[in-house]
């Protein structure tokens, strides 16, 4: 199955995570909304992640892979680099 990387910004109560989520290139579950609304998914895998603390400390770091628990996610926004 062909895959594509979708750039996203995800916020929890404590962190902003900017990175990529792997989605099918087309067809079933190829939309970001389809992916995040899967009931069976307890975690979202974000690759090439840049994390920023939202507590005002300015603490930032990067990680090749981050697993975010669905219950902690407050908002997911697709990022469009061409805009």
Would you write up a description of this structure?
This protein has one helix at residues 32-36, and strands at residues 3-11, 15-24, 43-53, 60-69, 75-78. By secondary structure, the chain is mostly beta strands. The chain has one domain: SH3 type barrels (Roll), CATH 2.30.30.100. It has a five-stranded antiparallel sheet with strand order 4-3-2-1-5. A hairpin with a 6-residue loop joins β3 (43-53) and β4 (60-69). It is globular, with a radius of gyration of 13 Å. The mean pLDDT is 89.
* Distance from first to last alpha carbon: 28 Å
Q: What structural class is derived from the secondary structure elements? A: mainly beta
Number of strands: 5
| Poorly predicted sequence stretches spanning 5 or more consecutive residues | none
Query: Percent of residues in helical segments?
Result: under 10%
Q: Counting H and I runs of at least 4 residues, what is the number of helices?
A: 1
Q: Give average pLDDT, whole number.
A: 89
CATH topology: SH3 type barrels
Q: Please describe the biggest sheet, giving its number of strands, its sense, and whether it closes into a barrel.
A: 5 strands, antiparallel
| Order of adjacent strands in the largest pleated sheet | 4-3-2-1-5
The total domain count is 1
CA radius of gyration is: 13 Å
What is the class in the CATH system? Mainly Beta
| CA-based shape | globular
> What share of residues are in beta strands?
over 45%
Order of helices and strands: EEHEEE
Q: Would you identify the CATH architecture?
A: Roll
């Amino acid at each position: 199955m062909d895959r594509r990387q979708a750039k996203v910004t995800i916020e929890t109560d404590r962190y902003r995570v900017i990175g990529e989520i792997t989605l099918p290139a087309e067809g079933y579950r190829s939309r970001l909304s389809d992916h995040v609304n899967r009931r069976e998914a307890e975690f979202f895998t974000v690759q090439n992640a840049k994390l920023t603390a939202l507590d005002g400390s300015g603490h930032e770091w990067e990680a090749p892979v981050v697993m975010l628990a669905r219950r902690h996610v407050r908002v997911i926004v697709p990022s469009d680099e061409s805009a």
